[in-house]
């Protein structure tokens, strides 16, 4: 019985299974391959231009009171698991600061860059809506210029035909 | 080896990221253009977008070369075509619009009007695409302002009214309510403006402290023809408006309303109420004060003093008002029985006036002044000029025809005069005068029966100026009956005529 019971194990050891060194080598190769794969994926994720932005804006990143007060973006933040980030949010903060400081041309360029180059900020269309809205406000305020008298003067003609 | 291959594939995928462009009008969503992190030419981007979306592209040759040089980085996964062209155009400083079923690339906005239009398009896109709830009220406020500036006043009124209704607590809302009235007034929707004004005045907030807002009630009532209400409101603002300029403007508005009522003394009293130093604070209003004073003095029949003020006004008035001021000077000279300087002034008015209706009125008066100078040929030419340049029936046409007919009669051009009189005899305030003149012409031609028929067309309403008096008509009828050999009936008519004083 014992020979019968040993037979399959020996057969496996003699005919199919590699030696102990070979097994360890193969296992190490697979582990190495896996690590390489993860490294490559990581590098690609970092190189990818349209990658998702990083974590939710922190106190130092979110410079605009308006933006922080935005209920839609705030409610979105916990759900957004963004891997790396900061730069796009920082750009948005810079744009908001320029807008709040009345530097409308600068703010316009920054919002434009954001929308063309970093529209997908992880928070999705909410942030895009903010940037697009602020861009439109910049355009409107630049186009209209400083106009203290929103309501123009009444038409005064003292004309004959008006009698 | 496997890892290297995988790395190569993934790097390639990362570098050649595609931009998916959505067409708003259709369901087509195609992965269209390979736009990676590196810069691409704006011209290439727009051309590819148009080609793949299947829409025609028209590029202004003036911007073609510049557009080919300008680079742009679009680093997104997807974008709506309209957004892409709007953003790319703004970034490149050109005007790229989806219009008339195609993409049109033109020079960037250079004038203020073009910049306002471009801004309006951005506002529309921002509100249409993905409006941010926090920005939406402010954005809608600015959009309505832009609409007002582009001349879409009715649309602006609706936009302001909607904003005020949907965001009652927003700071922009208070202004939006009063601006809705202003926009409705600008759109000529007076009834609508009156309703909005009533709601605004009934509300607890009242009229907000915006420059010009205090004047709106008077302006709306004036536009609606409620002169009394307009006068009450403008006097109230002149006495205690929130802004100094509005108080001065209200005093001028009061003068304008009184001018329409022909109240010269009232005008002078309104103008005297203007604060003494306001001309220094608002020098742009000084010409209007001169114009108002000149107009008031005209009503007071002090033409010489009026001419002095009006001449001062003409020097510095807004060009749109200069023609009217010169015309007023001409009227002053005409009233002083000085046709030559009146004619000179009216010619100046004619040169300055741009509006067709006002120009017709000035030329009509010019023909009358020429007639009074005895320059009948010139008066006929002026009348024909007015009639030939009119696009159709116009107010005052009968006055021109009457002048023409008078001048033709005076120069013995009987047939032409008859033609003008026949037109006048059909309708209008000169009907009675024309029928009387036709009867006289027929009598001169020896056709008494025809003359009597002309007189029989007269109605009681025709026998008031400028028509003939009843006595004149009776006298002519009696003479015609005598011509026809009916002395008994003629005597009867003359007896009636003697009972009325001849005019």
Please report the number of helical segments of chain B: 26
Based on secondary structure, the structural category of chain B is: mainly alpha
Q: Averaging pLDDT over every residue of chain A, what do you get?
A: 63
Number of strands of chain B: 8
Question: Most extensive chain contact?
Answer: A-B, 57 and 84 residues
Instruction: Sketch the major β-sheet of chain A.
Output: none
Computed CA radius of gyration of chain A, to the nearest angstrom: 32 Å
Using DSSP, what is the number of strands of chain A? 0
Q: Give average pLDDT of chain B, whole number.
A: 87
Characterize the largest beta sheet of chain B: strand count, sense, and whether it forms a barrel: 3 strands, mixed
Shape of chain A: rod-shaped
Number of helices of chain A: 7
Beta-strand residue percentage of chain A: under 5%
What is the terminal-to-terminal distance of chain B? Answer: 122 Å
Helix content of chain B: 55-70%
Radius of gyration of chain B: 35 Å
User: How do the helices and strands follow one another from N- to C-terminus of chain A?
Assistant: HHHHHHH
Assembly of the depicted chains: heterodimer
* Helical amount of chain A: 55-70%
Q: Kindly, what is the distance between the CA atoms of the first and last residues of chain A, rounded to a whole number of angstroms? A: 130 Å
Low-confidence stretches of chain A: 1-18, 49-85
